[in-house]
Amino acid sequence: MQTPADPQDRHEYPSHWEADVVLRDGGTARVRPITVDDAERLVSFYEQVSDESKYYRFFAPYPRLSAKDVHRFTHHDFVDRVGLAATIGGEFIATVRYDRIGPGGTPASAPADEAEVAFLVQDAHQGRGVASALLEHIAAVARERGIRRFAAEVLPANTKMIKVFMDAGYTQQRSFEDGVVRLEFDLEPTDRSLAVQRAREQRAEARSVRRLLAPGSVAVIGVGRTPGGVGRSVLGNLRDAGFTGSLHAVNRAFPDDLKEVDGVPAHRSVRDIDGSVDLAVVAVPAEHVPEVVTECGEHGVQGLVVLAAGYAESGPDGRERQRALVRQARTYGMRIIGPNAFGVINTADGVRLNASLAPEMPRPGRIGLFAQSGAIGIALLSRLHRRGGGVTGTTGVSTFVSSGNRADVSGNDVLQYWYDDPETDVVLMYLESIGNPRKFTRLARRTGAAKPLVVVQGAGQAPPGHAVRATRLPHATVSALLRQAGVIRVDTITELVDAGLLLARQPLPAGPRVAILGNSESLGLLTYDRCLAEGLRPARPLDLTTRATAGDFHRALAQALADESCDAVVVTAIPTIGEGAVGDAELAEALRSAAEEVPGKPVLVVHVELGGLAEALSAAGRTAPAASATAPGTGGGAHPVRPAERPPTEVQAKPPAPRTSRPCSRLIPAYPAAERAVRALAEAVKYAQWQREAAEPGKVPGYDDIDERGAAELIGALLERGEGLTIGVEETCRLLGKYGIGVHRALPAPTPEAAADAARALGYPVALKATAPHLRHRADLGGVRLDLADEEQLRRAYDELSELYGPPEELRPVVQRMAPRGVDTVVRAVIDPAAGAVVSFGLAGAASQLLGDMAHRLVPVTDRDATSLVRSIRTAPLLFGWRGSAPVDTPALEELLLRVSRLVDDHPEVVAVTLEPVVVARQGVSVLGATVRLAPPPARDDLGPRTLPAY
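Above: the chain's sequence. Below: its structure in C-alpha cell form.
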C-alpha cells in the first residue's frame, strides 16, 4: 500500500483526459480522472449503489468501503493505475479503473501491456450508456500509456456488464473458469469498434437534440409583466402555435398573487413548478443567466434555449462568459442551443413547438432547416413561407434550429437527429462556419446516402462567437471536399431554397437528359442554353405555341415523361390572353395529372408572371377541404387561412412512415426564372449520381511492394532530429521508394565539370535545371534546358544559364536524366488540422497556380476516387488526347495518387507531400521533383472516444 507521499502518486494530473460526453438518453456527463481529493465523493457514491451491484463488482457482500479501499481507489499514478469517474452535478455516477498486470496477473509496470479493468455504475444511472462511454475513454487512456490489452472478470449473472464488453466491437476472447467469465480483448480500434462507437454517438446526440425539439413541458424564463419584450413574445408564439405540452411563464419579479400570464401558469422560479420541465427558454439578460442555469439544473431541466446576447460575439469577456455558461450547464447534464439564438421550431402535430422569435408557425412539411444566424433563419423561413418574390409553393418545415453562437449544440448534432428523423426528407443548412469539418464530412456522407443535404457555407472569417478550428485549406477546397461527401453545395439562400423545394417535392432524376416543352419558343431556348451551361443534356425544346390548351400541355408532358430517353422535364409557360386562354388552375391540374402518370421523373415549371399558376400548382395536390383548394381569384372563402393553419401540402413519391394521411399526388415546383430552375435540376442530377456511386463505394487497393514497417522506422529516425522538418533529397527518395514511388535522381552541378560528371553517371540525354527558389518549377522563365544529347551541349547550356541568371551558387543547377515526353502535372497531399488528410491533383504551371484548377479528395482515396480525381479538373482533356494529341497513361497516374494516399494515411507524421512535376507519358509516369515534410501528427478526435467540444 502506498502513501500519499509516495513518488508514484505525484504524476502530473492529465487534464486532457477530462471530457464531456452525451449519454444514450441524450443527457450529458463529465468524465475525469479520480484524484486524492475525491475520497468523500467516492464514499457518497458507493453508499448509493445497491448491494447487488456491489456484489457484482467485488464478488462478495461488500456493504461499505474501508479506509484502505478509499485510499486505493483515489490514489493513482496515472500510468499503471488509473481511475476515471463520470460525474453529474459534481457527484460521481460511475467509476472505472484499470491496473497494469504482468503475465501472472500480478501488479506490473511498463513494458507490460495488459491491464485489468472494472466498472461500477450507480443503479439510478444504469441503462444510460455510462459504462460504454467510460470504456471508450479508459481504453484511449490505456493506449496512450502503452497498454494494448484489457482483461475483465465478471460474474455470469452480471449480464449488463458482459454486454458492455461484448458489444464494444473489439477483438475478444471469452472463457469460463471457477464460476467467473473472463474476457480479454485488444484495445486497437477495429472497423467494428469504430462503427459501434459512431452508431452510439449518433443515437446519443440525436436523442439529446430530440429532447430539445420534442419537450413535454416548456418554461419561458424572463416573461415580462406587460406585453412586449422577448420573453413575452416567445411565450405568445408557443401558445399561439398550439404547443401540446405544459407551458409555464417564469419571472422572479412576478407578484406573489399572480397566477397566470396570458392564460399560462405564472411562477417566480423554476423551482416553484410542480412536475418536471424538459426545456427552458432563457430570455433574461446575460448577467442573470448563471442564476437561471443553477435553478434549472437543480430542478432537473433537460435542455436550454438561451436567447440572451452578450457572449462571445461581444469580445473576450463575453467569450469567457460563454465558456462558463457551457461548463455550468454541462455540470447538470443539460445541453444548450445558443446563446444569442433565435430559437427552435417543431411543426409535428404531436408537438407544435414554436420556441422562437418567429411570430408565426411555419407550415408543416418535410424540410429540416438549420441556420446559425437569426437573421438568416428569418430569411429562410420567409422564403419557404411566402408565395411570391421567390420560389413559390407551400412546401413546409418539419423542424427548425437557429443555434446562434452554437456554444454547445451545433449543426453536427442536428444532422445526427435529422439522419433518421422520419418527419424530415430534406435538410437545408446555412453554415457561417464549420467547427469540426472532419466530423461534418463524415456525417454528411452518411446523411447524404439517406436524404439530400443542401448547404450554403459562408466564406471568409467565422463570425464572432464561433469557435472554429484553424484550417490551411482554401474555401474552394473545403467546398470541393463537401461535394465529395455528398453535400449539395450552393452559394446563396435563394439557391438553397430552390434546390430544397425541388428535392422535397420531386423524385431524383436518373440522369442528365432533359426534355423542354412550353408555349414560348424563346423561353424554351433560354432554358435549353442554361441546361447546356450546367452540364445537362437537353433535347431541342418542343414549342406548343401560345395557342396551346391545358390538354396540349397534358399530352406533351405525358409523352415526354414516357420517353425512355428523358430523365426530367422542364415546362415553360407564359401568360396567354384572348378567347380560350388557359387558366392557372386548369393548367396546373393538367400538369399535375400528367406527372402522376409517370411518377418516377421530376417535373419543374418555369413561369413568367402568371400570377396564380405557382399557387395553383401547389394547391393542385391538396387533400384539404374544397374551400381551401379554391384557385386564387375565383372566390370561395371570405376568411383567409392563416399560414400557420394551412395543412401540409407537399407530397413525395415515397411516403415515409409514420405519416399515412399525406396526399398521394406530388407538388410541382415553380420557378420565376429559367436559370434558377435549371440550376436546381443540375444539383439534383449531380446528387443522384453521387448517391448511386455511394451505394457501390470504391476500394483502397493493396500493393505488395509497399514497406509500411520500413517507412515507419525511417520516419521515426528522421523525427528524432526535430519536431517538424522538410527532409533531404536522399531521405525523400528513400521514403517514397518504400511506397513504390520512384523519383528521378537530380545531381547537383555547382560547376560545369560537376555537371558533366553527373551527366556521364546518369546517361545522356539529360536536362539542366536551375533550382533557385525564384526559378524552381518555372520553365517559362527559361531556367531549364532539355534534351542535352552530349557534353558539348551541356556545357553550352550551363554557360547560357550562368550568363542570363547569375553565378552557379545563385542558380543551384542540377542535372537530371530526361524523362519521356508527356503532360506535366502536380500531386500534393497535406494533413489539415481541421479537415484531415487531403490529396490534390492538377496540371503543373499556370493551370494550377494561376487558375486554381486543382481537384481534391479526402484520404483514404479509393480506386473510384482516383479515377474521378484525374477527370475532375477543367484541363483534364489534355490527358485524354485533346485536339489529336496522344492520350497519356492515366491508369499509372491513378496508381501514383493511390500510393501517395496510402503513405499519408498509414503515416500521419507525413504532414505534407509535393510531387512536382510528375510527367505523365504515353506509358508510365516520371516523378521529377519531390518534397516531404514530417511532423508529429495532429490530434484526431474522430478516432478517439466520444466527446463534446471542450470548453
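The two ends are 37 Å apart (CA to CA).
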